Amino acid sequence: MDRMIEYMNAHFSDKYVFKYATPSDYVDAINELDHTWPSKSDDLFPYGDVGDSWWVGYFSSRPNAKSYVRAGSHLLHASSQLASVAMNDPENSPETIAKYKAANDNMMNQMGVYQHHDAVSGTAKQAVADDYALRLSKAIKQNNDDLYSELIDKEVKKITGVSSTEWKMCEKTNSTFLDCPIKDFVTDIDGSTIHMNVHNPASIAIKNLQFSVPHGNFNVQKSDGTELTDKSEVICYKDWNEKQEEM
Fold first, then answer.
1. pTM given for the model
2. Domain match, 198 and 219 both
3. pLDDT given at position 119
4. Which residue range is the domain that position 73 belongs to?
C-alpha cells in the first residue's frame, strides 16, 4: 500500500493526492462538496433486477439456519473466553494449546462462512444450505470435544471438586431429554445421579435455568449439597422415541 501511494503521488499529484484516511476524513470531504444527496425512505426489498426476478426472503427464509447461526455464535464466544485463558496458561503443553487453537479457529472459520449473504440469509440452494449446516455442525462437535468440555471440566473441578471426562452438551435445549446426551447416562431412572453445569459467559447474572430430565421425580442440589428441590418447577412434555411413537 505504501509503495502504491508513493508511486501515485509521484506521477499523478497534479490531479490526485493519495494518503491514508479515516472515516471522518471521508465525511469531511463529502460535506465540503455541499451537495444535497437523495434519500430513500421505503424498503430496499423486494428488489427486482431482471424482468420478473425478485430478491426476497432474506429475513424469513430458513429460520432454523438463522437460529443455528445464533446458537453457534453463543457457543463460539463462550468457549473463546475459556480458550483465551487456557492458551496463556503455562501449565498447558504446546500440543494442548495447538489442539485448543485448531478447534477455536475452525469454529471461527465456519461461523465466518455462515455470514455469506446466501448462507445466514437462507437464500442458497438446498444442497448448499445443507453443506453450510454440516460444516457448522462438525465445527461445533470439534469445539465441544477438543476444547469446551475439557476447559469446562477444569473450571468445574476448581469450583466444586467434581471432575468428569464425559461432559456432554445438549444442543437441543427446546426438546425432550431423549434428544439430549443425558439419555445415554440414565441407566437407572429411579437412582441416577447426574451432574449439570451451566457456563454463563455474559456479565449479567441469570437466575432461571431449564434442563431436560427423564421425569419429575428428582432432587436438585448444589455441588455443596444445598437442597434446591423446593425452588425448582417441573414442566411436563410428552416423550417420543426414534420411531415417532409416544412413550
1. 0.68
2. yes
3. 94
4. 63-160
